[in-house]
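Standup notes, protein team

Yesterday: finished cleaning the Nocardioides panacisoli set.
Today: DUF2834 domain-containing protein structure.
Blockers: none.

Input for DUF2834 domain-containing protein:
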Amino acid sequence: MVSLLVHAVLGVLVVVWILRANPQVFRRVPGGPALSVLELVLYVVGAISVVLGWWFNIRFVREYADDPILNNPIWGDGSWAQYIHLMFANPAAGSAGQDYTIGNVVLLPLMTIVDGRRRGIARPWLYFVATLFTSFAFGWAFYLATVERQRRLAAVDESDPVRRTPARYSPSS
């Protein structure tokens, strides 16, 4: 369980790092609600995925580890190595396991890094790092909520000439 607690702390620290690295994105939208309906739904889905993942991970460690409190998180019973092995224990699990692995380890970092840089999100690779300690669905939901927040802020910035950034302002607008 110590390894799960370390995971929880690291997950919170990565989320805080993302928030602190992007204050321009996570500021309040002037004249709007704190969260849009879409942002709220994304955060709720992400949070539910973390809770469900924790429920299964705690069960895994309690049922498989020789010592659930001080188990070795790298190898042996109840470890990452055993977890990955069991993820491919049968063809059905292997099908889901490979899909999850490719989505989380290849597509999510590729998408968030490329798209995040295009959008000016600082340290977009942290969304992938967050998935290592939270869940794949949380990383996606958090990134999509970030993009939605940027969209809302851009709409306000474009409609208010005082708030327009110099790069976006042109004399013809």
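Follow-up from PR in the comments: The helical segments are 2-21, 37-64, 80-87, 91-119, 126-133, 136-159.
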